[in-house]
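Training component of the fellowship. As part of building independent skills, the fellow (R.M.) carried out the full modelling exercise for a liganded target. The chosen ligand was nicotinamide-adenine-dinucleotide. The inputs are recorded below so that the supervisory panel can assess the work.
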Amino acid sequence: MNRKLRIGIIGAGGIARSAHIPNYQNYGDAVEVVAVANHNKEKAEDCAREFSISHAYEDYQDMLREMDLDAVSICTPNAFHAEQAIAAMESGCHVLCEKPPAISSSDAEKMEEAASRLGKHLMYGFHFRFRPEVETVKRFIDEGEMGEIYAAEAKWNRRRGIPGWGVFTNKELQGGGTLIDNGIHMLDSALYLMGYPEPKTVLGVTYDKIGKRPGVGLLGEWDHENFSVEDMARGMIAFQNGASLLFESSFAANIADKDARVLKVMGDQGGADVFPLTMYQEKHDTLLDLTPPYVDKGNAHKDMVHHFIESILMGQKTSGHTHQGTLVQRIIEALYESAATGKAVEM
Ligand SMILES: NC(=O)c1ccc[n+]([C@@H]2O[C@H](COP(=O)([O-])OP(=O)(O)OC[C@H]3O[C@@H](n4cnc5c(N)ncnc54)[C@H](O)[C@@H]3O)[C@@H](O)[C@H]2O)c1
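Fellow's submitted model of the complex:
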């Protein structure tokens, strides 16, 4: 490609400003962020000024029509992802869409269908896959060092981390709470390390014991009066290949840690705790703990955005495989369905 990649941003809020725009702009000369759209025009203009972006739009459709874009980042509330991603692909763009893919599995399926029909990259914002700890464990698994991964645990619990900004506690706009927001990162990372097996049976439970009343807000003051999502989700997923995954996440729970992630994989030849990283093996009649003396902190958002750019420039598949986004969305929907009905969901 001779000209610069022309990037547009839809949604000029927190993640666009902290992760997407700076990491397009630090890629170098091959890429230029040429426009930003936000349904609140002032926000679009403010963002354009802050990042020296030449065009600001109120209506993202006008941006798609007028700016001759090659790719867009979608950084809006979850309920808008599907419509905006499909419109962007239909206008000829590749798409990096923030997680979750959508608020329903039927929307995620439509997005996957559009990407395949139109031959576009559709990558999701699963940046934890780009964490050095996850990449290291993936390399060990891919080299067969852990054998068959048959069990995993994925948790992200916060003591009082209900987001106080945006619309994270609004079910209509987000599709849910902690499960679809922070929980999805650990779910995706575990599934990624397990090789994304096909789910068979899903059992989920959700709670809203803390979010509906006022309290100490370690991520800002949340709107407890209009809190319509779950503040805790727990579940178990059994897969068709016999593997199983235990899941738990919370925006708020009465636990010791302010914010704690647990990601464990267990194989028949070895296993790992990913955060912090230690791997477990048995060799020559000896049980071993393998802890790297140094793990680079990395910059997962940067690596994710640069991977998206390079996938376009080199015409290669993105690692946030579109179909895996659909699968994780189906699992999330089944966890919510199981929580609502009190019954396990057969997939
Ligand atoms: N990968 C991560 O670590 C991570 C972190 C935070 C948020 N996110 C995801 O990013 C998305 C946005 O989250 P955020 O924290 O940036 O929220 P935010 O509220 O800070 O920003 C959202 C922006 O979208 C704008 N917007 C709302 N509806 C719109 C529409 N229909 N068209 C155009 N613009 C619209 C809002 O005005 C706001 O500027 C969510 O999907 C969230 O799940 C991902």
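The panel noted the following from the submitted structure. Residues 5-127+302-317 form a domain with the Rossmann fold fold (CATH 3.40.50.720). The longest helix spans residues 322-341.
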